Amino acid sequence: MPESAEDLAPTTTGTNGIRPALLHIADLVAPGSRVLDVGCGDGTLLGLLADTRGVDARGVEISQAGVNACVSQGLSVIQGDADTDLYDYPAGAFDYAILSETLQATRHPRDVLRQLLVIGRHAIVSFPNFGYWPVRWQLLWRGRMPVTKTLAYSWYDTPNIHLCTIKDFTTLCAELGIVVERAITIDRKGQSRSWRHAGTWANVTGNQAIFLLRKPD
After folding, report:
1. Closest CA to 98 of 59, 52, 150
2. What are the tens digits of pLDDT across the range 138-148?
């Protein structure tokens, strides 16, 4: 039985020290495309996309420290809030609008998700899966909100205000008429599986989820 957050923690680094989830996101992006990374943090994903996929990479980050870190690397990033500032971009401005590990921290995730597919031909969304089995186990065994490396905050200081499971997310996509083109789950060791191949077990065995989305034809 898991005894600590370390026991539940995902592998945090992959190739060249970059987290496996970011490598999988990069693989979903076509070379030479126009990309907006919303909630780009310190610019790790933007830099990876620029270096390996040759994209026109832009970013939006809410924290000034994150913006400064990106700009110091020569990345084109502005300070902004996913909940309010996506409406400033014209429809179809990007080939991909990416929201990596940020959806659960937005105030209005439903609206943010819709707006991603207004400004982007595709959206790539990743999030921690609250249905992952160690999270369920912590709730069942300890009766407390889980704390893991993926969900690293205590309940009283977490920025994650709208946690969801993979099943919750796919249900929302269906309600909004959003097409799931590809979906990947990643376990704590960084190993990936196709969501469709894993079936209903994806919601139990997936520590993180990555979805490639588009509007219906």
Report:
1. 59
2. 777 777 666 76
Distance CA 42, CA 65 (A): 8
Percent of the chain with pLDDT over 70: 83
Fold category of 16-130+161-214 in CATH: Rossmann fold (3.40.50)
- Phi-psi label, residue 129: left if phi above 0, alpha if psi -120 to 50, beta otherwise: beta
Alpha-carbon distance of 79 to 59, in angstroms, equals: 9
pLDDT at 204: 85
Which of these, 66, 99, 64, lies nearest to 83 by C-alpha position? 99
Pairing of strands 94-100, 34-38: parallel
**Neighbour count for residue 63 (Cβ, 10 Å):** 12
Helix (H, G, I), strand (E, B) or coil at 7: helix
Residue 166 has pLDDT above 80, yes or no: yes
Query: What is the DSSP code string of 138-187?
Result: HHHHH-S----SSS-S-TTT-S--S-B-HHHHHHHHHHHT-EEEEEEEE-
Least Cα distance to 185 among 146, 151, 150, 211 occurs for 211
Helical packing angle, 109-119 and 166-176, nearest 10°: 60
